[in-house]
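Forum: Protein Structure Q&A
Topic: Joint prediction for protein chains with partners

I've read a bunch of threads here and the consensus seems to be that you should model interacting components together rather than docking separate models afterwards. I'd like to see that in practice. Below is the full input, 344 residues plus whatever partners are listed. Could one of the regulars post the assembled result?
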Amino acid sequence: MKKITKIKGFTIHFLPYSEIRDLNSTGRIKKVLDIVLGNSILILQGRLKPEEETRLIEDTMAMMGHLKNFKGIELAVISGNENEKFFGKMRVGILNAISGADLGAITIIGPATIVKEIKRNPKKIELFLNR
Amino acid sequence: MAIKIVRNFFTRIFLSIFKSKGNIKLGFYGPPNAGKTSLANRICKDFTGEEIGSVSKIPHETRNVQFKEQVEIDYKGKKLTFKMIDTPGIATKIDYEDFLKYKMKKAESKKRAKEATQGIIESIKWLDDMDIVVVVLDATENPYNQVNITIIGNLAARKIPVVIVANKIDMKKADIKKIESAFPEYDVVGISAKYGTNLEEFYESIFKLAKKI
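Posted by a regular:
Agreed with the consensus. Here's the joint model:
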């Protein structure tokens, strides 16, 4: 019989983009890291700006030296408009410009102690958890 | 205002003189173990006789940004001088236990992990200073890794010219087409840094990008 192993102690936290829309980059990264450090897997509507993504990596690395057992994060973004044709991209671009974000995207961020690996291709994301 | 315009004018003149001397900053970025140092070594060895850094099968061998000044590359009779900047591989997590698998001692592994985190921060800080960036990817790995997308997205946002290198094409599992379809807006050059395969096409891409800066 297959042994069922329990994974203990994590939650999935959904964050609508409206929660970070009015924050500056520092505030956004702090919010994201607070959630992840609370042992939650964050599912964010939309995505961070490219420079915020690198800042998130920098801050993660800086925190690793200060927090015991924090081994970093797993991060993946899946964007809905990657395979759009020219006019489709233009339409999405206009919508994004109005909303101020790529709302067709989903960002998944989890602590590396819980999320072992995130495999992605343009159409799906697979999360592999640590036991 | 007038002082600012004059200052900007002189800065531009100074930069253009500097660039005309051919001191183009060529950065090597990518995830760990993709072959950044192997490629930089291959180029440096071919044109200066010296290597830039050590390579290893153990990830995060490069933990500091490494430089080689005045590397004059001669391609089809044209010469350009580069400052080569080899950076530590960027990752979102580092677990010292991964190094134990390579028979490294615990204390040494922890030290390596700590140095690697600092190396990643240093790599990211250097992004703004590059004239051209070579993003080195392992052609045997899935290119849809978020680190690759983040690096390339950042370079695009900073308007820094990029060439993507699909390294390790000598290996059976290598799939350049997968990298091309992941990054259709970029030049992808398949090479083997280990055996020096297809470097001519790589130099051609670099010289083409050098014209844009």
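Strands of chain B lie at 24-29, 66-75, 78-86, 132-138, 162-167, 188-190.
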